[in-house]
Amino acid sequence: MQSVFDIAGITPLDCKNSRIAAEGDFPVLYRLEGQKEERVGCFEAKRAFPFEKEDEYIVLLSEEGKDLGFIRALSERSEQERAILERELSRRYFMPVITGIQKVTERFAFSYWKVKTTSGDLEFSVKDTYRSLIHLGKRIIVTDADGNRYDIPDVTALDRDSRKKIDIYLW
Amino acid sequence: MSLKKKKKEGPSTEQTLCSWDARWQEQDYLDLIPFNYTACPEGFSRITGIAVITKEKIICYEQGQRCREIGLASADGCLLLADGGAVRIVLCRGEERFTVAVADLKYKERYGAFVQALTRYIEEGIYQRPGILRERVCPRCGRPYRPGSNSCVRCGGKKKQLAWLFTLFKPMIPGLILSLFLFLAISAVGLIAPMLSEKMVDGYLKNPEAGRSDLLPYLLVVLAMFGCTALSRGLSALRSVISSKLGAKAAYRLRAAVFEKIQQLSLAGVNRRTAGELMQRVTDDAAVLKNFLTGDLGSIVEQISTFLAIGVILIVSDIQNDTPLFLLVFLPAIPAMVLMYMFNRRIRRIYRTQWMVSSKASTLLHDIFSGIRVVKAFGREKDEIVKYEKAIYGVKRVQKRNELFWAIFSPMLNTLMTMGEFFVLFFVGNAILKGDMTLGEMTKLTAYAAMLYGPLRSMAFIPRRILRATTSLSKIYDLMVDDDILPHKKDAESRMLEGHVTFKDVSFGYEVGKPVLKHVDLEIHPGEMIGIVGRSGVGKSTLINLVMRLYDTEEGQVLLDGVDIKDLSPDTLRAGVGAVLQETFLFAGTIKDNIAYAKPNATAEEVIAAAKVAGAHEFIMRQKDGYDTYVGEKGFTLSGGERQRIAIARAILLDPKILILDEATSALDTETEKQIQDALQKLIAGRTTLAIAHRLSTLRNATRLIVLDDHGIAEQGTHEELMQNKNGIYYGLVMAQRQMSSKK
């Protein structure tokens, strides 16, 4: 009997069958077959498990959104390639990190946040606050009304005042 | 209030550019794209940037510095990357890619429009500045609109809202005034009672001789006290009757108005909001408003007037008797009120968390019960028990904490609040002992003092009630002024359609920057049967939605019999275009009602005839109640095939000149599909038909097939013609399906 993996035809992109390079601001995938090298094109890197496995199972997608394969772990790739991938991932998953909360007011099912972040002081609005917070143990990810995300890596590490402002949402 | 502060508007993009580089003049560039991210090792950092689009190139400025240029001459495309943490406009030149601008997701829609404009410029050499997009943020206060609304709930003109409410409730105003008057009357009657007690104590009880010698006046006082109580009860009863009548009327008027408005909205207007959101406005918000008008408003008036009246009585008596009773009651209550105000947030939080955790637990329960088959099938009962126990443990913990808080807080507050009563008692008692005051006066004054606490307590809740009512009013009003209605020409003539359908350079998309159809031209003659084929999401359903005018085109025209669909009367359209859709919705009602849905005045014979043609008559007659068989909300008592046949009968009864079949038979098994196809065949004859089907064999009778791909018509012709082109999409689709069926 064939295993699920055989049926799925999963062959991870590793150093033997692929090469990753950067062209200007954009990452490009090359497929290797023996001595032959074929340029596949620009790709977008996406984590299959963005919350649980940040450095593993990185799926590469073509500009049209077609699956090009996945990289099992960043550590499998050369330092240079890893840098390219990490740059790409840090952009795709870019979120300002919230370091302090100055004010949260709630009005008409929206909450309005005034926060200190690694990208400076920001103000944003969150609709349907309870459903816009992703709880990952101590980590919390806030999604604002436009879809921008903000990271609170450890709620317990926030100062008391900041935490008090959001503790009604922490249930 | 800081919230009311108007947000300062920053300089416009043009002004910023001029301050950076004064050489720029409006006519030198085609457009400006503002951006606020620049790449850095951590991802992006925030900056202020402007990309200037000129005829030859794009010049980017970051923080006032000219930093890069991208030539447009050899560019061959423009992309929008928007599913990450930022939006990016990317220019393509062969295999090369260049970042034009990066910004946070607030810019998503705007960037979509820029990409559209740039693409057109690259392809056709024409640059048209994107129109002002519907801003999702209030220009006055900078707060986002609630989902699906076009005005700010905060800034949306309270005056206008009240005016609207006034016109809606105009016929009820005398009733409302009467009910308010009754509220006042009840509180006035309540004020008489303590005076009578004074009379009784001072006049008779303290001086039993007077009572004994002349019983009649004493009896009169007792009777008057009884009268007061009776009157107050009677007025209350009257008020309740009036209020409930008014309430029912108000709710009816509000709901009818809101529902009527929702029905008038275009499908796009309806789809922007969720069904839950709309239901909430029709039911909950209307109820809040109704309760406020018929209950809260009256009791607020009552409380305030009671407070003022007693306040005046106490103060006057204080001045006369040189006593500080009013202050004795009022001053100790102040800390209690302050405390209450301070704890308001905490109390609200308590309610909220309790509500949150218990609703979480019940959602979980609902989830588990709905999926109980899956739970059992995979033997996960124990894990679900653990999950649920964890949830109810959370409920228990919150409940315990909250109840502890209440148990301590509320007696404390009450003691503090009513502390004044003891001061009054002490002071008044002292005055009696000194002989400055009579026992009767004491009875009266302590009664009044006690009556002051009701209004004082309710003061803490009044602002919240008003706020809740105004929020609901804003939410309803926002819906009432929504202008997303497909406009109908007033003088549009009613006519019989022949079935000529024309698409003239039609472009349409549901979202900005994501066109579904682009420049579609199509001519369909009366009586033709058109099969529409293509991948999912390619715009097949969109095409027919436009023929039904569920949406209006962005560009171009849809013409029926040579008349723009926007100029046809709704009656013409509804009588002329009938549809059998994939999702057959049967409303709660009888089978007859459902068949006659599009033509309620159909005769019994017409209904039977339609059912017969649809092949539904027999199974309907097998039901115990025949055509009067009641079908539930989703018609669960009927099978998919049976429901589909009722839907076909519905379309047949309408006898439309243009028939739309959207995957009418795809959900059925082959046997049933064949039967229904036969029924449909009868229906199609002589009518213009537009049919969508995944199973291409269903379309074998089509006079013409249209293959959609890449936002437009890729191929068209008869089956034979299309099969000639071995590289064509249609050929590929047919071959793929043949392989599938031969494998079966």
Care to give the gist of this entry?
The complex is a heterodimer of chains A (171) and B (744). Chain A has helices at 4-8, 79-92, 129-132, 160-166; strands spanning 18-23, 26-33, 36-47, 56-62, 67-73, 98-107, 110-117, 120-127, 133-136, 139-143, 149-152. Chain A is α+β, with helices and mostly antiparallel strands and 171 residues long.
Structure report:
The complex is a heterodimer of chains A (171) and B (744). Chain A is an alpha+beta fold and 171 residues long. Chain A is 18% helix and 46% strand. Chain A folds into 2 domains: 4-92, no CATH class; 98-169, no CATH class. Chain A has 4 helices and 11 strands, in the order H-E-E-E-E-E-H-E-E-E-H-E-E-E-H. In chain A, a hairpin with a 4-residue loop joins strand 4 (56-62) and strand 5. The radius of gyration of chain A is 20 Å and the shape is elongated. The mean pLDDT of chain A is 86. With 744 residues, chain B is α+β, with helices and mostly antiparallel strands. Chain B folds into 4 domains: 2-124, Roll (PH-domain like); 158-323 and 437-480, ABC transporter transmembrane region fold (Up-down Bundle); 351-434, no CATH class; 529-539 and 573-743, P-loop containing nucleotide triphosphate hydrolases (Rossmann fold, 3-Layer(aba) Sandwich), CATH 3.40.50.300. Helix content of chain B is 55%, strand content 15%. Chain B contains 24 helices and 19 strands. In chain B, the strands form 5 sheets. Chain B has a 6-stranded mixed beta sheet. In chain B, helix 8 (275-321) packs antiparallel against helix 14 (453-459), helix 8 runs antiparallel to helix 15 (462-480) and helix 12 (419-434) packs antiparallel against helix 13 (439-451). The two termini of chain B are 71 Å apart. The chains are: A alpha+beta (171), B alpha+beta (744). Chains A and B meet through strand 3, helix 2 and strand 8 of A and strand 2, strand 7, helix 9 and helix 15 of B.
Describe the secondary structure blueprint for this structure.
The complex is a heterodimer of chains A (about 170) and B (about 750).
Chain A: H1 4-8, E1 18-23, E2 26-33, E3 36-47, E4 56-62, E5 67-73, H2 79-92, E6 98-107, E7 110-117, E8 120-127, H3 129-132, E9 133-136, E10 139-143, E11 149-152, H4 160-166
Antiparallel strand pairs in A: 1-2, 2-3, 3-4, 4-5, 6-7, 7-8, 9-10, 10-11
Chain B: H1 13-20, E1 31-40, E2 43-53, E3 57-62, E4 65-71, E5 77-81, E6 87-93, E7 96-103, H2 108-124, H3 158-168, H4 173-205, H5 208-213, H6 215-264, H7 267-271, H8 275-321, H9 325-370, H10 372-377, H11 381-417, H12 419-434, H13 439-451, H14 453-459, H15 462-480, E8 501-508, E9 517-524, E10 529-533, H16 540-547, E11 555-560, E12 563-564, H17 570-576, E13 577-580, E14 589-590, H18 591-595, H19 604-613, H20 617-622, E15 630-631, H21 640-654, E16 658-662, H22 670-684, E17 688-692, E18 704-709, E19 712-717, H23 719-724, H24 729-743
Parallel strand pairs in B: 10-17, 10-18, 13-16, 16-17
Antiparallel strand pairs in B: 1-2, 2-3, 3-4, 5-6, 6-7, 8-9, 8-11, 11-12, 14-15, 18-19
Helix pairs in contact in B: 3-15, 4-6, 4-8, 4-13, 6-8, 8-13, 8-14, 8-15, 9-11, 9-12, 12-13, 19-21, 21-22
